[in-house]
Amino acid sequence: MHSNNDSSASTPLQKITYPILQFIQQEKSGGIVLGISVVVAMLLANSTWSAAYFHVLEYPVGLLVNGEPVFNFSLHHWINDGLMSIFFFVVGLELKRELVNGELSQPKKALLPIVAAFGGMLVPALIYLFLNPTGEVHSGWGIPMATDIAFALGVLFLLGDRIPVALKVFLTALAIVDDLGAVLVIAFFYTSTISMVNLLAALGFLAVMFIANRMGVRNVLFYALIGIFGVWIAFLLSGIHATIAAVLAAFMIPSKVTISEKKIVQKIQKALHRFSAEDVNEKKPSLTSDQIYHLEQLRTFTTQTLPPLQRLEHRLHPYVTFLVIPIFALANAGVSLEIDGSSLFSTNVFLGVALGLLVGKVVGVVGFTWLLVRLKVSPYPNGMNFQKLLGLGFLAAIGFTMSLFITTLAFEHEVYQVQAKMGIFVASIIGGVIGYWLLSRTQS
């Protein structure tokens, strides 16, 4: 914890960057930045710059090989298939960490959020399918299944200490399981024609990563090269959505260290002792070559204490939160509001998505959780009661990022996309406000 004296003695550059770093480190910051991005996208889509906004998104980007375009896709496509692969990679890292040694690694603790997430996916899909049983609109059933973890946790953390830690952990675990469900839905139901040759090549690269993991390879660059230039490109060419490659590659990243914690501590202590034992000339504040060597050893040892999985998750998380997701929102949340009611309700897509999120999520999450507690299969987490559970159910109805993403996969028809996005916006805003109100009225 830094004191005020530390900050006052900082350099001018640090005085500028310190507030930014403090903002980034707050849990609610991701939701705030995402919200701003959505507002900016909506303003651009409904301003005099709307034509330029949509034109830029359709601008082709690719490579020229012998005068022929290769990987030539629109900027919008690159954002959704390329940039969002980083988001899904981090989702995969979080999933593996939770399954290996997190909340989902203990069956008793994991059961309640897993069942709640299952209910929160099943009921919204059924509501949507009931309202849209046939035709092209039928394919949008996956849209209301997803919860936006950044927005939901952002609202939750705005309540501060009034919310017990157990509730934050419950919502996090629920959202992570929800993400896994969304990934599986994308893999099995939103995939085009499959090229078996490229799919087998992708599986081969995954096998290389798996074998390297088992053999003790911990070099992050190795996994990056195989994951990007092997797994991701092969999946992109196979017809299976490239974001699935990111999740599978994440599961191949080592989650354990090859050296015991006790040995690492001993090595660090020895290096520190040797560093402090060196003679230092106070008049010359620069370090000796031996001290530099000992510091390099310290950096190596501290790197060895952090598994590659957690190292990557820690490094990539800020980029995903403050760069990838905002760019995705800017590219996908822009919806023209110059639509009349007849156009919005020409199909049941809007109602299916809005009611799926706002009603289905709440009924699914709250109902399935309450049922397990009533049957005494699993107790409420510490500090939870029915009102808090209901508040969390409404927060789970916030479906921005993943719901918008599935919308781009489900529909090619622009009218259906607009209807779905409006449903997402309406349900997410109402769900967030009601969830916040319910939780703010509870006693901590």
Q: CA-to-CA gap between the ends?
A: 26 Å
- Could you describe the largest sheet, including whether it forms a barrel? 2 strands, antiparallel
Class from helix and strand fractions: mainly alpha
> How would you write the strand order of the largest sheet?
1-2
Mean pLDDT across all amino acids: 81
Strand percentage lies at under 5%
In sequence order, what are the helices and strands, one letter per element? HHHHEEHHHHHHHHHHHHHHH
Low-confidence segments, ≥5 residues, pLDDT <50? 1-9
Task: Please state the CA-atom Rg, rounded to the nearest Å.
Answer: 24 Å
Strand elements, count: 2
What is the number of helices?
Answer: 19
Give an overview of the whole structure.
Residues 1-9 have low confidence and may be disordered. Helix 7 (149-158) runs parallel beside helix 19. This protein has 19 helices and 2 strands. The chain is globular. A two-stranded antiparallel sheet has the order 1-2. It is 71% helix and 3% strand. With 444 residues, the chain is mainly α. A hairpin with a 2-residue loop joins strand 1 and strand 2 (68-74).
